[in-house]
UniProtKB/TrEMBL annotation:
Record domain Haem-binding uptake Tiki superfamily ChaN: where: 41-246
Protein name: Iron-regulated protein
Signal peptide: 1-23
Pfam entry (one): Cofac_haem_bdg
Keywords, comma-separated and alphabetical: Signal
Amino acid sequence: MSKTLRKAVLLLLCLFFPTQAHAGAITRVNDGQMVTMQQLTAKAEVADLVLIGEVHDKPAVHDLQLSIIRSLQDKKQPMAIGLEVMQSNSQQQLDDWVSGKMTEEQFQPVFAQNWSYDWRLYRDIFIFARDNKIPLIALNVPKEIVVKVSRQGYKALSKEEIKNLPPGTNADLNNTHTEFLKRAFQPLFKSVSNGKVFEYFCEAQTLRNSGMAMTLAQYVRQHPNTKMVVLAGIWHAIKNAVPEQLDRKGNRLSSVVIMPEIQEFSGGKATADLIDYLVQLPPP
C-alpha cells in the first residue's frame, strides 16, 4: 500500500471511528475488583448523576470524560453536562453555543473569561455537546464571589451578592468535606500567620460545592428523568463534596463517582466513601 493510500485509509478510519480514551486498569473501589470500561459505563447508564473528576490540565482525563459521554449518548436518553469550568452568570452564552448561535471564535473569549486552562483541553467535549444538542450547564459560583469569600469569609458577602447565588447555597463548615480538607490540606497553611486563612479557604470550597449542587438540583427539578454528567475537579466531585451537598438538601439522586488515579488515591488509598471507580490513565 502506498504512503498516500495508507494516509487516506487512516483518515477515513478516524472519521468513522472517533478516537476513544484508552484507559488502563479500572478498579471498583468498594471491593477492589478490576472491571472493564463496559462494566463501568453500564453502572453510569442507570445512575441519575455521573461525576467524573478531573485533573484540569491532563488531556487523558478529558479524553476519558468524552469517552463516557459518548457511551451514554449512544443510549439516546436525555442528558445534560454540568461544568465547573463555566460560571453561572455565563449560562446564556453556553446556551447560545449549544444552539449554534456562537461560533468557536466567538465563544473562546467567553471560555477564557471563565477558566484559565487552555480551551483545547476541553474543545472536543464542547464540540460534541454542540453537535449533539446536549445542554451544557454552568455550575460554578461567579469568580468574584469565590475570591471575596476566600479572602474575607462568607460573612463579608453583601445581601445582593448572596441573592445572586443559587437558592439554598451556603458556606456552612459543619460537613464531612471540611473535615476531609482539614486532614488533607490544613498542614499547607501552617506557615500562614492569619488563622482565618484556612477557614476562609474551606468556606470558599463549601460555597462552590453547595452552589454547584443547588444548580444541579434546580436543573433536575425542571428537567426530570435527565441524566446529569458532571465534569469537575477531583475535590468537588468526590462523594463528600457536591454529592453530599445534594443529599443535605434532600435531593436523593443515585450517583456514580469516577476518578482518575492520582497520588492521593494510589496504593489502596482510595476508599468507597469517596469514590466508586478509579481509572488508571495512560502516561502522557
